[in-house]
TrEMBL record:
Binds 1 FMN per subunit. Homodimer. Gene3D superfamilies: Electron Transport, Fmn-binding Protein, Chain A (2.30.110.10). Belongs to the pyridoxamine 5'-phosphate oxidase family. HAMAP family: PdxH. The gene is pdxH. Pathway: Cofactor metabolism; pyridoxal 5'-phosphate salvage; pyridoxal 5'-phosphate from pyridoxamine 5'-phosphate: step 1/1; Cofactor metabolism; pyridoxal 5'-phosphate salvage; pyridoxal 5'-phosphate from pyridoxine 5'-phosphate: step 1/1. Residues 36-150 form the Pyridoxamine 5'-phosphate oxidase N-terminal domain. Residues 172-223 form the Pyridoxine 5'-phosphate oxidase dimerisation C-terminal domain. FMN binds at R61, I62, V63, L64, L65, K66, F76, T77, K83, Q105, Q140, S141, W185, R195. Residues 13-24 have a biased composition (Basic and acidic residues). This is Pyridoxine/pyridoxamine 5'-phosphate oxidase. Its cofactor is FMN.
């Protein structure tokens, strides 16, 4: 149990993990290893914050990771939502996995790109029918007059697609986050944590293949 909000200054959890030495594997292999470990200890390990930019500054929200490979990290959303529009205007993006139960976080910086339509079709097709309906009727991030309005639109679509497949709406699909920096953080005693940031070996900020060890140089950072 944690301390209540008015005891925040006294709230202190000590981190006691094994030390984390220079990683020898590629960023993709290390992510996959840490993910599989998180899957055993963390509730919803695929929940990640995604931060985007617009003219007023950054904004963050949680989305669910739905795939990872050497090209990057995939999530699905509404292209007309606030984040969808922001990423199409400015692809610069940050992602964070806060795996408290492992005393770990993974921080990612990169560029988002709209996923191939085939990838969005494939994932939409395996979503439950109710989620497909919700994605079809939701105008994500737009104001709505009330729950009743949403429900009546949902019910109308449910009736319309009672005995046929829901087509993937044009406004819904995936983004792939292509990575130019990925940091692995492991909590240690006395707040003297281990941090290894994989930066591009050529010093650039161009996204690269996460499985290519030589494209990346792990750099230890002060905590
Ligand atoms: C655990 C969790 C998982 C979520 N997963 C998604 C997701 O995969 N895609 C999505 O569009 N929104 C997801 N959301 C909702 C977003 O956090 C956010 O409210 C929504 O996408 C609208 O964000 P925007 O107005 O900044 O575009 C999730 C929220 C939570 C708490």
């Amino acid at each position: 149990m944690s301390e209540p909000v008015d005891r925040l200054p006294q709230t202190r959890k000590s981190y006691e993990s094994p030390t984390f030495d220079r990683p020898e594997s590629s960023p993709l292999a290390l992510f996959r290893q840490w993910y599989d470990e998180a899957a055993e200890h963390v509730r919803e390990p695929n929940a990640m914050t995604v931060s985007t930019l617009d003219e007023w500054g950054p904004s963050s929200r949680i989305v669910l990771l739905k795939g990872v490979d050497e090209t990057g990290f995939m999530f699905f959303t509404d292209y007309d939502s606030s984040k969808g529009r922001q990423l199409q205007d400015d692809p610069r993006v940050a992602v964070n996995f806060p795996w408290h139960d492992m005393e770990r976080q993974i921080r990612i910086r990169g560029l988002a790109e709209v996923a191939a339509p085939e990838d969005s079709d494939a994932y939409f097709a395996v979503r439950p029918h109710g989620s497909q309906i919700a994605a079809s009727v939701s105008k994500q991030s737009q104001p709505v007059s009330g729950r009743e309005q949403m429900q009546s639109e949902y019910d109308a679509a449910l009736a319309e697609y009672a005995d046929r497949d829901v087509p993937r709406p044009d406004h819904w699909g995936g983004f792939r986050v292509r990575v130019f920096e990925i940091e692995f953080w492991q909590g240690q005693k006395n707040r003297f944590h281990d941090r290894w940031a994989f930066c591009r070996s050529d010093g650039s900020h161009e996204p690269a293949d996460l499985s290519q060890t030589e494209a990346w140089t792990p750099v230890r950072l002060y905590p």
